[in-house]
Amino acid sequence: DGRDLSQLSERERDRFRAASVGYMFQSFHLLDGFSAVENVELGESFAGRKVHRGEAQALLESLELGHRLDYKPSELSIGQQARVALARALAGRPKLILADEPTGALDGETADTILELLLTRAKKEGATLVVATHDPGIAARFDHTVNLADINEALEPSR
Question: What is the pTM of this model?
Answer without folding.
Answer: 0.84
